[in-house]
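2-hydroxyacid dehydrogenase: structure, please.
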Amino acid sequence: MVTESGPAHPTVAVLYADDRPSGLAAFDGRARFVLVTEDELPAALKDADALLVWDFRSRAVPAAWPVDGPHPRWVHVAAAGVDTVLCPALREGGVTVTNSRGVFDTPIAEYVTGLVLAMAKGMPDTLAAQRERRWAYRETESVAGRSALVVGTGPIGRAIARMLTAVGLRVTGVGRTERASDADFGTVHGFPALPGLLGDADYVVLAAPLTEQTTGMIDAAALAAMRPGARLVNIGRGPLVVTADLVAALTAGRIAGAALDVFDTEPLPPDSPLWTVPGLVVSPHMSGDTLGWRDDLAALFADNLDRWLADQPLRNVVDLRLGYVPTG
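Here you go.
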């Protein structure tokens, strides 16, 4: 166990793997930081007033969280999604959970827009032909006038909608609350309407949080409802999609293609069929990670830590019933 700063309280446990957040020294004398690995986490949680989940890919928090007795009063996750830390004991323990909403909105929107353009313009085939020294002339698709359905209308979904609109797509949304007039989506439909909307979209983009309602929402029936020429993009959470059903749909050519940046198991195992399934672009959970993103995460946490130490309202407070930060 490694400590930073002096013995002053409160104590903030920091779950990390290979790197540690910057800027902690600025809080010397006001907080004590205890840097812990997954193995050290259970013991640290019993003595910590707050927990920073810097290693946001870790799934160690639910198993380590104390069922009874002392536990942190505040948990901050250095990611937009908080499904990896939520568990019954934490939800019921009067804990405040915050996330890093706002850091990834524009980078992920840029990544999704890049994927849509790359798939429409056949870039994977172009690169494959170049590697084979094969002159493969063909015509490509235009994105102007095509339709996109963005599932998840939080800040990331909204940034995606604005950027896809800017390159000419017609965008509608699916979210928790139905709205007939929306600044970014035009129309937002409720989640129950999703099956009936899939057949109208050229691109279906998943930007929803992982909840009981959204888990497995893109299954064989949903994929069968999509257009044969449609494409699926998932930058939300891996379990939003039933992997075996997607593999079957792509192998049979029932949809034109897909791009996944998130998976049920990460890193993606070498023997996963997703590596070789036709029409699929695989990226290693990097859609929001631009140069300097760790500094942005650290700055957001530092601002919230200042607020917490001053007993002021925190940014990005998660509704533990919903599993995400409500908008509006």
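Notes: The radius of gyration is 21 Å.
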